[in-house]
Design a protein that fits this description.
The chain has about 400 residues and is an all-alpha fold. It has 2 domains: about 1-250, no CATH class; about 270-400, no CATH class. The chain has 19 helices and 4 strands. The strands form 2 sheets. The protein has a two-stranded antiparallel sheet. Strands 2-3 form a two-stranded parallel ribbon. About 35% of the residues are buried.
Length: about 400
């Protein structure tokens, strides 16, 4: 009898080889990731898709067991993150709090913000408020993870407790740490959004597509995160599968930019609409198109000024990025002085900077009529094409192909 008890403690009701426990742990944590990205993120926070009640409730139950997270709390905190992104009010921005703080203490930041009743009231609207949510999932939010450790132990014995520990660490590390931290600090950008969001890698598999974080910030209400042909969003693949089964309905995806073969003589209303809709892609393309011109001009200034003030500034690389508009961090006062000096010494840099500012202001003029905005865009293209800067003129011609 004692042997049986020891065997049960060691292996539970389902003894497995070591690799079997690894597969179980990966499978369970992956279901949790799917619940976060499909249910909490794309469905609840952004309303990018509707889920069948059975699917929705399965994810609610699973996340209660494996994370203890409450739908309203997660939704409200994430919506506030988008509304206050990269400001001191952002619940988890590495730009304001530092990467180590967000990466290592992301779960604590989440719990602290969950206690902010103003955040819950303002950003938590439209989340589940049925009997189960009020009396079980919210009232006993951490009892679920206690039930999970019992289930794991019964099934797999001591190994099940280890699997439970991995489950408990998975979301704080992968979501709170990697996505909220690294996803706003390091990676590549498809779109020049007004925040510091990045795509960590182009293959969104391990975290269910959340790796494509910059794409998500560019089109927050899109159910699909991938944008380029080489990017893969596993969460979107799951959503398409649920659609085929009649268990999900996609409400919105990022619009596709249509480019005509022929350059229009002048921009029209379709061009204006396309430019405003795809403003982040427009600014990213502007950065790419003018990057080499900026680099050439700055290199020429360095050579001409020798060891003067401009040559001794260590942040020229940052200046080049800022000139092309692909950064969110404000320039230090010393760099602003350097930028001013550079534009005084280079007509091309001054023109590139001024034209970027004017283009960016186009979609910020909310009080202007469409006719006024179109006139501004037409004037912008005319001056870009007569600027004497070939890449800027080419960029203007590309804009006039938008439809």
């Amino acid at each position: 009898m004692s042997f049986d008890i020891l065997s049960f403690v060691a292996h539970g009701l389902m003894p497995l080889p070591w690799w079997g426990y690894v597969i179980v742990a990966l499978a369970m944590t992956h279901v949790t990731i799917a619940g976060v990205t499909i249910y909490l993120h794309r469905h609840s926070a952004h309303r990018a898709l509707d889920l069948h009640p059975a699917v929705s409730h399965f994810f609610r139950f699973w996340l209660w067991l494996t994370t203890g997270m409450v739908t309203k709390e997660w939704t409200a905190i994430h919506r506030k993150h988008h509304a206050k992104c990269e400001t001191p009010e952002d619940p988890h921005s590495p730009q304001t709090r530092g990467l180590p703080e967000v990466f290592f203490r992301g779960a604590e930041l989440y719990r602290a913000e969950a206690k902010n009743q103003d955040t819950m009231d303002r950003y938590g609207k439209g989340t589940p408020d049925d009997w189960m949510e009020r009396n079980v999932y919210t009232r006993y939010s951490w009892e679920g993870v206690g039930l999970m450790v019992i289930i794991n132990f019964m099934l797999f014995g001591a190994a099940g407790v280890a699997i439970w520990a991995v489950q408990m660490a998975w979301i704080p590390i992968m979501a709170a740490g990697v996505i909220n931290g690294i996803g706003h600090y390091w990676g590549y950008r498809d779109f020049a959004t007004a925040d510091a969001s990045t795509n960590i890698v182009p293959w969104g598999i391990l975290i269910g597509g959340e790796e494509l974080h910059n794409n998500h910030h560019a089109f927050g209400s899109s159910a699909k995160f991938s944008s380029r042909w080489y990017e893969f969003d596993l969460g979107w693949a799951y959503i398409r599968g649920l659609e085929l089964l009649g268990l999900a309905t996609v409400r919105k995806v990022a619009p596709k930019l249509k480019v005509e073969a022929v350059v229009k003589p002048v921009p029209d209303h379709a061009t204006l609409e396309a430019v405003i809709t795809h403003r982040y892609a427009v600014m990213k393309n502007y950065a790419r198109t003018l990057k080499q011109t900026c680099a050439t001009e700055i290199a020429a200034l360095r050579e001409r000024l020798g060891r003067g003030e401009l040559a001794n500034v260590p942040s020229m690389r940052r200046l080049k990025h800022w000139l092309s508009g692909d950064t969110v961090s404000p320039l230090p006062e010393r760099d602003r002085a350097t930028l001013s000096k550079a534009m005084e010494s280079s007509k091309a840099l001054a023109t590139i900077y001024a034209m970027r500012q004017e283009l960016n202001a186009l979609w910020e003029r909310s009080t202007d009529s469409s006719e006024q905005l179109l006139a501004r865009l037409q004037d912008w293209c005319r001056r870009a094409e007569s600027s004497g800067i070939a890449p800027l003129a080419q960029f203007s011609l590309q804009l006039k192909r938008y439809a």
